[in-house]
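Example 9 (inverse folding). The structure is encoded as follows.
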């Protein structure tokens, strides 16, 4: 049933370490054959109705239900967008956005193989990844799990990862199907997407995963799509996935994503996770009896579960391979290569980088992301590692005793701020008055006490709600000791809500959300003029996890940071997000976390040779400081070996080779999706509409089509190297009878070091009857070259590369006429161009 689709030349020539996979007997899935279906028929015939109904619901959060009578074990699942995370410590690889930044599907396959070995070492049958939702806005808290803004780059990266995972006898699960592109209320957002945009932008990566990657499982998403929950969408689950694409594997729900069990069953969902709460045995049995649902529909679901188990050998061998070490040195090497290729150098004025260790006596490493290591972000993608190298670790280990390495965090930790601020209660007592009410409405007579500080913060997610609700109020005064700006910092967790009032006016509000990050406000205050404080807090649990503190902005930056930066020969400022500020279940801010802009400015003012590294899953505001620093290295979330990789790039042991899988806007308002990304108002827990008004003009498709508009700060595909490259001698073959075309050119390393570049081929269709983007990525190839060397590159295009989705015919259409071809190494840097005519 599977058909080949657009498959451009994507074989990477990356000089990666040769990782020999450890032996896993009978690991790879068995190719489809009649024998598999006969065996599935035989197993199905032995199951009772009760057993069949048991199989379509999960158990114990990450398992399917065993059927010993047919030899089917409980199938074990683990979150795994970039590491096997559920069952203890494991290897943490670079986040999905970082893997996409490598533009290297062959590396993605090696990462997948390593993840598959990690899974087999733990007896895991299903890895719940990769995620291929599109990067629409930098605010999406889950961007770091995904592969950027382009469907081809996302799909080809996913195919590589899937091939690697499944080669080890582990099922990959592509998710979240589909159009789950925000986190601020992901379970209730209704993504309104027109048919053409859906098929051109938001479905192709899933299609590639199915048709090219032969992915074993698909997971639905939480959101609605055009008024239907995706777990209950006949269009998505059956019409497109199972019928058009021929998917014959297992289709599961995201955890708790089903709202109507009978509708989900009818639409084509095979397995409700983590248990059969709504698609349960009682309901389905009753609907089978009254004819609303059919036995054939149930049997198809059970067949898919059994087919997957047979295809991957789960009935014929133990899934746990005891000879595979859970903490694998071989997989550590893969994680390091992954990190090295992902690091993306965005700015390098005056060739500040690479740093020369021979010319440096002292280097300052400053910032909250310098130490400890931040391997990944928050939520279900977070992996607890056996060991992880921080940026500070990496630099110290690389330099040894040859260079003095100075370190300071530069900013106080949140808990340090929560212990600051001299407060007085309503009656002059030291501290804030705390009133605890036995309800969530601040009603009745409270239990009263005094808190010197509100420092109970815990960064928690997905906690059990309290049976007996409470509300808490802190009140008093804060008196500044001098004129100036003061930072008011607050933090709670999960579904807690609060409002901070300063002099009776709301200063910070945390609305009801599934998750949250610390919030702050900066206010100008006058010495010895107290302001009144009232903090109203409604915890979702039966205890306080609230944090609140005040600190003078001038006091935020430690004196050590300025002193170290001034005396050092170079300074590294490591800033960005972390699991508490960028995570599944909530959207993040566009601004860097509190105090970090000021820290960069302070260090840059003290040391002209300041290099900034940023940990994030996407774009962020940099206008306050970017002009003041000569170099900016985007590190994404680099995994457990990130510190080692960053040090090697900073000091020239490895030339940076990451390329942006997204467009970095100058301002959030420049993002083409921004005006329609968040609703003006909505009630948490109630469905609300978000119109994808930018249509097919997402990311670089918008910018290249609207050159008169503000262009991105850093374009899609951009990434600097320590070498230089030149493109030349473009030639384009005549289309054959099927409109297949070969595009050839020379790529030369014109610099002085070994380095890699990514040749990118974009297609434009100015004569199309439909409005199309000026440029669309249709093929690419990563090339590694020694200085002075040239490689002749050939990229292939088929008819689909020239097509757009035609709504009238509900299919792909090519308008005959003149097409434009652009070749280069960024969407805004294509020195080679050609025209190509396609006949009717």
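The amino acid assigned to each position is listed next.
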């Amino acid at each position: 049933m599977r058909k080949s689709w657009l498959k451009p030349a994507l074989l990477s020539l990356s000089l990666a370490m040769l990782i020999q996979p450890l032996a896993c007997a009978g690991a790879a899935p068995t190719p489809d054959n009649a024998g598999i279906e006969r065996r599935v028929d035989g197993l199905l015939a032995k199951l009772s109705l009760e057993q069949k109904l048991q199989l379509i619901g999960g158990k114990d959060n990450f398992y399917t239900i065993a059927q010993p009578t047919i030899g089917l074990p409980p199938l074990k699942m683990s979150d795994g967008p970039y590491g096997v995370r559920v069952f203890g410590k494991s290897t943490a690889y670079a986040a999905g956005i970082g893997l996409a930044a490598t533009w290297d599907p062959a590396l993605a396959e090696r990462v997948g193989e390593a993840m598959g070995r990690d899974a087999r070492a733990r007896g895991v049958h299903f890895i719940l990844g990769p995620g291929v939702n599109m990067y629409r806005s930098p605010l999406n808290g889950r961007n770091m799990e995904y592969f950027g803004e382009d469907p081809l780059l996302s799909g080809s990266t996913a195919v590589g990862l899937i091939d690697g995972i499944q080669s080890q006898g582990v099922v990959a699960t592509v998710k979240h199907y589909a159009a789950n592109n925000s986190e601020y209320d992901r379970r209730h957002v209704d993504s309104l997407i027109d048919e053409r945009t859906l098929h051109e932008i938001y479905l192709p990566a899933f299609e590639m995963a199915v048709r090219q990657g032969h992915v074993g499982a698909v997971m639905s998403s939480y959101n609605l799509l055009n008024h239907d929950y995706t777990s209950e969408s006949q269009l998505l689950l059956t019409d497109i996935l199972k019928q058009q694409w021929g998917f014959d594997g297992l289709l599961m729900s995201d955890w708790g994503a089903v709202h109507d069990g009978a509708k989900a069953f009818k639409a084509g969902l095979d397995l409700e996770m983590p248990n059969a709460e709504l698609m349960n045995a009682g309901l389905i049995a009753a609907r089978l009896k009254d004819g609303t649902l059919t036995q054939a529909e149930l049997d198809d679901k059970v067949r898919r579960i059994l087919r997957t188990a047979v295809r991957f050998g789960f009935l014929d061998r133990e899934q746990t391979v005891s000879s595979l070490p859970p903490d694998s040195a071989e997989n550590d090497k893969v994680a390091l290569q992954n990190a090295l290729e992902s690091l993306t150098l965005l700015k390098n004025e005056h060739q500040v980088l690479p740093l020369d260790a021979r010319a440096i006596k002292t280097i300052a490493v400053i910032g909250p992301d310098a130490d400890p290591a931040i391997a990944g972000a928050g939520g279900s993608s977070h992996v607890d590692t056996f060991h992880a190298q921080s940026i500070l670790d990496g630099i110290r280990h690389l330099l040894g005793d040859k260079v003095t390495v100075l370190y300071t965090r530069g900013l106080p930790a949140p808990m340090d701020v929560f212990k600051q601020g001299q407060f007085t209660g309503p009656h002059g007592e030291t501290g804030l008055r705390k009133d605890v009410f036995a309800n969530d409405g601040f009603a009745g007579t409270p239990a009263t006490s005094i808190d010197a500080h509100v420092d109970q913060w815990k960064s928690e997610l997905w906690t059990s709600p309290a049976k007996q609700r409470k509300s808490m109020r802190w009140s008093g005064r804060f008196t500044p000791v001098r004129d100036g700006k003061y930072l008011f910092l607050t933090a709670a967790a999960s579904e807690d809500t609060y409002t901070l009032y300063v002099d009776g006016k709301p200063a910070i509000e945390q609305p009801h959300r599934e998750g949250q990050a610390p919030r702050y406000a900066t206010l100008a205050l006058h010495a010895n003029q107290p302001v009144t404080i009232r903090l109203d807090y409604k915890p979702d649990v039966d205890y306080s996890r609230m944090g609140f503190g005040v600190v003078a902005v001038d006091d935020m930056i430690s004196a050590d940071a300025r002193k170290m930066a001034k005396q050092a020969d170079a300074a590294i400022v490591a800033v960005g997000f972390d699991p508490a500020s960028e995570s599944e279940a909530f959207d993040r801010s566009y601004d860097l976390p509190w105090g970090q802009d000021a820290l960069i400015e302070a260090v840059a003012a003290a040391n002209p040779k300041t290099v900034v590294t940023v940990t994030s899953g996407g774009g962020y505001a940099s206008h306050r400081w970017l002009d003041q620093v000569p170099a900016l290295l985007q590190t994404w979330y680099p995994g457990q070996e990130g510190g080692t990789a960053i040090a090697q790039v900073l000091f020239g042991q490895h030339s940076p080779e990451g390329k942006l899988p997204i467009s970095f806007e100058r301002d959030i308002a420049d993002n083409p999706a921004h005006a329609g990304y968040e609703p003006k108002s909505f009630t948490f827990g109630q469905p609300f509409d978000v119109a994808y008004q930018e249509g097919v003009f997402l990311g670089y498709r918008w910018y290249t089509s609207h050159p008169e508009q503000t262009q991105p700060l850093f374009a899609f595909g951009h990434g600097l190297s320590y070498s230089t490259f030149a493109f030349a001698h473009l030639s384009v073959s005549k289309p054959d009878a099927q409109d297949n075309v070969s595009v050839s050119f020379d790529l030369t390393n014109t610099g002085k070091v070994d380095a890699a570049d990514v040749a990118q081929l974009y297609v434009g269709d100015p004569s199309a009857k439909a409005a199309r983007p000026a440029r669309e990525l249709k093929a690419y190839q990563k090339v590694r070259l020694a200085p002075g060397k040239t490689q002749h590159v050939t990229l292939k295009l088929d008819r689909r590369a020239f097509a757009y989705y035609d709504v009238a015919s509900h299919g792909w259409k090519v308008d005959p006429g003149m097409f434009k071809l652009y070749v280069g190494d960024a969407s805004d840097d294509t020195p080679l161009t050609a025209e190509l005519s396609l006949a009717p």
